[in-house]
Amino acid sequence: MDKWMKNNNFNKILALVFGIILWTIVHVDTEPTNQTTVNTQTKIIENVKIEQTGLDEEKYVYTVDADSVRLEVSGKNSDLNFKFSDDYKVTLDLSDVGPGDTTLPLNYTLPKGVKYELMEPSEVNVHVELRNTKTFPVTVNITGAPADGYQAAAAVIDPSEVEVTLPASELSKVATVQGTIELDGENESFTEKRMRLTAYDESGNEISGAVIEPSTVAVQLSITLPNKTLPLDISFSGQLPGSLVLSRVTPEIDAVTVYGSKEALAGLSSYEATLDLSTVQSAGTQQVKLELKPPEGTAKIEPAEVNVTVSAAEIAERTMENIPIKLEGVASGLTAVVTDPAAKAISLTLAGAPTLLDQLDQDNISVVADVGGLAAGTHQVSLQISMPRFISMVSSSQPNTVTIDLQTPAATPEATVSPDTGIVPTPEPSSEAVSGGETSVEPTRSAEPTSTATPEPVEDTAESSSTPAGSGNDANTGNAGAGGT
After folding, report:
1. CA-CA distance, 200 to 137, in Å (whole number)?
2. Spatial CB neighbours of 236, under 8 Å, sequence gap ≥ 6
3. N or C end of the chain: which has fewer CB within 10 A?
4. What residues are paired with 305 via a beta bridge?
5. Of the ranges 165-174, 183-192, 474-483, which is most confident?
């Protein structure tokens, strides 16, 4: 081999061969013009995207009837086959176009060495409209369902209104702007869930091209068991120490919310919380925390506890004189007159907190003789006495019954005399609440006061309660101080 390499003639021949090969490679595509026709090819490029330039999209909406073209080019094999499709550019200049319809030519840019032959289409129709913006409320379409027994409340949307931008001809078609929330057995509420919005026409068809700002909104959706709001009543247990009586019981809220099945809630009309009077140790005002438990058959209650302001004072007494006796229930065609006591009034000694006793007057006390269902004749009727809450009756200087004469007008011509004489024409039944009773008792310090409903906070005013004359109801007497129902 070294011998051949040292041979000068061999090297010359080898150099000539390499030269011929290189000349052939370089000049295969650069033959004189009269020889290139055999090497020129054509190529079809489909779907060349039209690039739009010079747009003013904040002011106008553009509609072009084509978004791509079919491009036919020619050239040498190396130029056609070794170029990417992205090297072929087709542009549409919209910089000088205003509202209306316009036909514009398309411009093209080709790779080096490639020749343009044909473009379809070579021009496009352009429709230009001014953009309009209008504000619409956002609505929510809830699909699916929460967990069994649960219910979804109305969704809270933030923001509740959005702006929609469209050509004037399209904007008038917008009926709603809506998003969809899909539920699939959820049993918990959610907040800040993002919801994408879409514009729809009256037929529920989506309006394409609508620019919605913002395009998404936050949604808060409460998913809970069925619930019912109930008035809060306060009842009492235990007893107050010493000679204390209640003067005021005020819960911080007047209603609670109970959660459960519809069947369980249907039978509830109020919620009763029990205050243990033994927790009140002295006169004055204190705050007591009561735990609230869900009623039987329900799942939960809100709130789970409530603060109650309780005021107590040392018991005092006051005698109210000449409280008139009212007649109720006189049958049609009869007249009624109180014959005993002759004064047609009684005196009552009442017990309670001094502040409540000081506020009492005859308008706060109701003494009623109910003759409903009685026929003509003389009758002994038990008195029904109503008094403010936390006031109890100690004793009465009069009997707990009165004598009533019921007569027809023909038998009692004097029935038209003034009520001051004791003869009363047929009255309408009183709207005051009353209850029956038998005997009067002195105040006692009951260990088991009756339940007293308090659907509204109790103030230091004379609230009405109904107690039979001489009733032995411990809730109205003694240190329980819960007089009245």
Report:
1. 12
2. 274, 275, 276, 277, 449, 450, 451, 452, 475, 480, 482
3. N
4. 291
5. 165-174
> 233: closest CA among 4, 396, 406, 389?
389
**Spatial separation of the C-alpha atoms in residues 115 and 390, rounded to whole Å:** 108
**pTM: predicted TM-score of the whole model, two decimal places:** 0.47
Strand order through the sheet with 40-53: 107-109, 89-93, 40-53, 68-76, 114-120
Tell me the per-residue pLDDT of 377-394, one tens digit each, with 9 for 90 and over: 999 999 999 989 899 988
Nearest to 273 by CA among 239, 240, 230, 311: 230
Tokens of 350: 């009442």
CA distance 338 to 345: 9
User: For residues 384 and 365, is the Cβ–Cβ distance under 8 A?
Assistant: no
> What distance in Å separates the CA atoms of residue 311 and residue 239, rounded to the nearest whole number?
14
Q: Which amino acid is at 143?
A: T
- The CA distances from residue 453 to 8, 67, 275, 298, 449, in Å, are 130, 78, 11, 22, 12
Q: Tell me the torsion sign for CA atoms 333, 339, 343, 347.
A: negative
Task: Report CA dihedral (189, 192, 194, 198) to the nearest 10 degrees.
Answer: 90
72-94 exposure pattern, b = at least 16 Cβ within 10 A, e = fewer: ebebbeebbeebeeeebebebeb
Q: Are strands 227-237 and 255-260 parallel, antiparallel or unpaired?
A: antiparallel
- pLDDT tens digits, one per residue of 102-128: 999 999 998 888 899 999 999 999 998
Burial bucket for residue 160 (CB in 10 Å: 0-12, 13-18, 19+): exposed
Q: What is the number of other CB atoms lying within 10 angstroms of the CB of residue 68?
A: 12
Strand partners, 218: 158, 194
Nearest-CA neighbor of 400 among 333, 447, 311, 467? 467
User: Is the backbone of residue 190 left (phi > 0), alpha (psi -120 to 50) or beta?
Assistant: beta
Over residues 417-476, the pLDDT tens digits come to: 344 434 444 333 333 333 233 333 333 333 333 333 333 333 443 344 444 443 333 333
- Tell me which residue has tokens 């005196």: 347
User: Per this entry, what is the length of the chain?
Assistant: 485
Looking at residues 366-382, what average pLDDT do you find? Answer: 93
Phi and psi for 427 in degrees, rounded to 5? Answer: -95, 165
Beta strands in 397-479 (DSSP E): 401-407, 423-424, 464-468
